[in-house]
Design goal:
- It contains 3 helices and 9 strands.
- It is of the alpha+beta class.
- The strands form 2 sheets. The chain has a 5-stranded antiparallel beta sheet with strand order 2-1-9-8-7, covered by helices on one side. Strands 3-4-5-6 form a 4-stranded antiparallel beta sheet.
- The relative contact order is 0.18.
Protein backbone atom coordinates (compact mmCIF):
# COMPACT_ATOMS: atom_id res chain seq x y z
CA UNK A 1 0.00 0.00 0.00
CA UNK A 2 2.83 2.40 0.88
CA UNK A 3 4.61 1.66 -2.37
CA UNK A 4 1.44 2.43 -4.38
CA UNK A 5 1.01 5.69 -2.48
CA UNK A 6 4.68 6.55 -3.08
CA UNK A 7 4.27 5.85 -6.81
CA UNK A 8 1.16 8.04 -6.99
CA UNK A 9 2.96 10.88 -5.20
CA UNK A 10 5.99 10.58 -7.52
CA UNK A 11 3.85 10.45 -10.66
CA UNK A 12 1.79 13.43 -9.49
CA UNK A 13 4.93 15.42 -8.71
CA UNK A 14 6.48 14.54 -12.06
CA UNK A 15 3.26 15.42 -13.93
CA UNK A 16 3.09 18.84 -12.26
CA UNK A 17 6.77 19.47 -12.91
CA UNK A 18 6.41 18.46 -16.58
CA UNK A 19 3.32 20.61 -16.99
CA UNK A 20 5.08 23.60 -15.51
CA UNK A 21 8.15 23.38 -17.75
CA UNK A 22 6.15 22.18 -20.73
CA UNK A 23 3.90 25.21 -20.38
CA UNK A 24 6.56 27.48 -21.83
CA UNK A 25 5.19 29.61 -24.62
CA UNK A 26 8.53 29.43 -26.43
CA UNK A 27 7.37 26.81 -28.92
CA UNK A 28 7.15 27.08 -32.66
CA UNK A 29 3.44 26.13 -32.40
CA UNK A 30 2.71 29.52 -30.79
CA UNK A 31 4.55 31.25 -33.63
CA UNK A 32 2.08 29.88 -36.16
CA UNK A 33 -1.17 30.36 -34.22
CA UNK A 34 -1.25 34.15 -34.29
CA UNK A 35 -0.87 37.27 -36.38
CA UNK A 36 1.80 39.59 -34.96
CA UNK A 37 1.97 43.40 -34.89
CA UNK A 38 5.30 45.16 -34.38
CA UNK A 39 5.66 47.12 -31.13
CA UNK A 40 9.43 47.67 -30.80
CA UNK A 41 12.58 47.91 -32.91
CA UNK A 42 16.10 47.58 -31.52
CA UNK A 43 14.73 47.53 -27.98
CA UNK A 44 12.77 50.78 -28.36
CA UNK A 45 8.98 51.05 -28.58
CA UNK A 46 7.55 52.13 -31.93
CA UNK A 47 4.70 54.60 -32.26
CA UNK A 48 1.95 52.16 -33.21
CA UNK A 49 -0.29 55.06 -34.27
CA UNK A 50 2.02 55.35 -37.32
CA UNK A 51 1.20 51.79 -38.43
CA UNK A 52 -0.99 52.16 -41.50
CA UNK A 53 -2.07 48.49 -41.78
CA UNK A 54 -2.56 46.95 -38.35
CA UNK A 55 -3.32 43.44 -39.63
CA UNK A 56 0.22 42.28 -38.79
CA UNK A 57 2.35 39.46 -40.12
CA UNK A 58 1.78 35.70 -40.14
CA UNK A 59 4.13 32.74 -40.27
CA UNK A 60 2.97 29.70 -42.25
CA UNK A 61 4.38 26.43 -40.89
CA UNK A 62 3.64 24.29 -43.95
CA UNK A 63 5.28 26.62 -46.48
CA UNK A 64 7.85 28.32 -44.19
CA UNK A 65 6.58 31.66 -45.52
CA UNK A 66 5.94 35.01 -43.87
CA UNK A 67 3.23 37.33 -45.16
CA UNK A 68 1.37 40.44 -44.05
CA UNK A 69 2.38 44.01 -43.33
CA UNK A 70 4.71 45.47 -40.74
CA UNK A 71 3.38 48.98 -41.27
CA UNK A 72 2.15 49.96 -44.71
CA UNK A 73 3.44 47.76 -47.53
CA UNK A 74 2.65 44.10 -48.04
CA UNK A 75 5.52 41.81 -47.11
CA UNK A 76 6.28 38.25 -48.22
CA UNK A 77 9.23 35.93 -47.90
CA UNK A 78 10.61 32.74 -46.44
CA UNK A 79 12.11 31.77 -43.12
CA UNK A 80 14.02 28.86 -41.62
CA UNK A 81 13.45 27.46 -38.13
CA UNK A 82 16.20 25.49 -36.48
CA UNK A 83 16.81 23.87 -33.13
CA UNK A 84 16.97 25.86 -29.89
CA UNK A 85 14.83 28.67 -31.33
CA UNK A 86 17.20 29.35 -34.20
CA UNK A 87 15.38 31.45 -36.79
CA UNK A 88 16.37 33.44 -39.84
CA UNK A 89 14.75 34.98 -42.86
CA UNK A 90 15.77 33.80 -46.28
CA UNK A 91 16.90 36.91 -48.12
CA UNK A 92 15.55 38.98 -49.57
CA UNK A 93 12.07 39.60 -48.23
CA UNK A 94 9.87 41.19 -50.87
CA UNK A 95 7.51 44.07 -50.28
CA UNK A 96 5.30 46.36 -52.23
CA UNK A 97 6.62 49.88 -52.71
CA UNK A 98 3.69 52.16 -51.90
CA UNK A 99 4.53 55.63 -50.66
CA UNK A 100 3.23 55.67 -47.11
CA UNK A 101 2.67 58.54 -44.67
CA UNK A 102 5.48 57.25 -42.43
CA UNK A 103 8.06 54.73 -43.56
CA UNK A 104 10.22 54.70 -40.39
CA UNK A 105 8.83 51.49 -38.85
CA UNK A 106 8.91 49.57 -42.10
CA UNK A 107 12.40 50.77 -43.03
CA UNK A 108 13.64 50.01 -39.52
CA UNK A 109 12.31 46.45 -39.71
CA UNK A 110 13.89 45.86 -43.12
CA UNK A 111 17.26 46.98 -41.69
CA UNK A 112 17.21 44.33 -38.94
CA UNK A 113 15.85 41.41 -40.99
CA UNK A 114 19.27 40.13 -42.04
CA UNK A 115 20.55 40.20 -38.43
CA UNK A 116 17.84 37.93 -36.98
CA UNK A 117 19.17 34.58 -35.75
CA UNK A 118 16.77 33.57 -32.95
CA UNK A 119 13.26 34.05 -31.70
CA UNK A 120 11.50 33.71 -28.39
CA UNK A 121 7.87 33.87 -27.38
CA UNK A 122 7.09 35.23 -23.96
CA UNK A 123 3.42 35.54 -23.06
CA UNK A 124 1.78 37.48 -25.87
CA UNK A 125 5.07 38.72 -27.35
CA UNK A 126 7.28 37.43 -30.15
CA UNK A 127 10.85 38.72 -29.96
CA UNK A 128 13.34 38.38 -32.81
CA UNK A 129 16.97 38.63 -31.70
CA UNK A 130 20.51 38.39 -33.02
CA UNK A 131 21.20 35.99 -30.16
CA UNK A 132 22.02 38.75 -27.68
CA UNK A 133 20.00 41.83 -28.61
CA UNK A 134 16.31 42.40 -29.20
CA UNK A 135 15.89 43.45 -32.83
CA UNK A 136 12.11 43.40 -33.25
CA UNK A 137 9.25 42.76 -30.87
CA UNK A 138 5.69 41.88 -31.87
CA UNK A 139 2.45 41.48 -29.95
CA UNK A 140 -0.22 38.86 -30.75
CA UNK A 141 -3.29 40.13 -32.51
Amino acid sequence: MRSILAIIVCVSFFACKTSKSGGSNNSSASLFKHKWMIVALNGEDVDTTKIFKKNGIMFNKETSRISGAVSCNALIGSFVLGENNAFHFKQPLASTKMMCPDMSIENGFMKVVDKVSNYKISGKYLVLTDGDNELAKFVQL
